[in-house]
Structures are given as structure tokens and as C-alpha cells.
Amino acid sequence: MKSFKFNTNINCSGCIAAVGPALDSLDGVKSWQVDTVNPSKVLSIEAEDHLDAQHIKDAVTSKGFNISEA
């Protein structure tokens, strides 16, 4: 199991709803959450070992959001 943390611009429930299906469809994602209270809007993901950070970044940017490794 791997843990990832990213800084994003996902800042509200509407943004979470927009990016959610992309994250949910990634093979290997076990759970994820966005801390919208944190100024860095931290996206935390628990995933299986085969998932890499680039796939997560691609999924988030495909929905129009910015993401960088924390």
C-alpha cells in the first residue's frame, strides 16, 4: 500500500464532485480525500503499490485542476 499527498486547487464540494469520478475510476485507488480547509488543498490518496503519482496527476488535470506533489 502507498500513500500520496498532493497540493491542488480543489477547493469546494463542487470541485470534489467533478474530480471524484476520475479518481474513483483509477485502478488501485483505495481511498482519497481533499482537505479544503488547508490552504494547499491537500489531496491524500491511499493506493495499491502498482499505482504511480503520474496516473493520479493525469486524472486530476484531465478534469481541469492543478496538482503538484506535496
What does this structure look like?
This protein is an alpha+beta fold and 70 residues long. The chain is 30% helix and 33% strand. The chain contains 2 helices and 4 strands; from the N terminus they run E-H-E-E-H-E. Strands 2-3-1-4 form a 4-stranded antiparallel beta sheet, with helices on one face. The longest helix has 12 residues, at 13-24. The model has no long low-confidence stretch (mean pLDDT 97).
- Helices, by number, come to 2
The stretches of 5 or more residues where confidence is low (pLDDT under 50) are: none
Q: In what order do the strands lie side by side in the largest sheet?
A: 2-3-1-4
For the biggest sheet, the summary is: 4 strands, antiparallel
The total strand number stands at: 4
- Terminal CA distance reads 18 Å
Please give the radius of gyration in angstroms. Answer: 11 Å
**Averaging pLDDT over every residue, what do you get?**
97
Question: How much of the residues is beta strand, in percent?
Answer: 25-35%
Q: Helix share of residues?
A: 25-40%
Shape: globular
List keywords for this structure.
70 residues; alpha+beta; 4-stranded antiparallel sheet; 2 helices; 4 strands; 30% helix; 33% strand
Please render the helix and strand layout as text.
Blueprint (H helix, E strand, L loop, with lengths): L1 E7 L4 H12 L4 E7 L6 E6 L5 H9 L5 E3 L1
Antiparallel strand pairs: 1-3, 1-4, 2-3
Brief rundown of the structure:
By secondary structure, the protein is of the alpha+beta class. The mean pLDDT is 97.
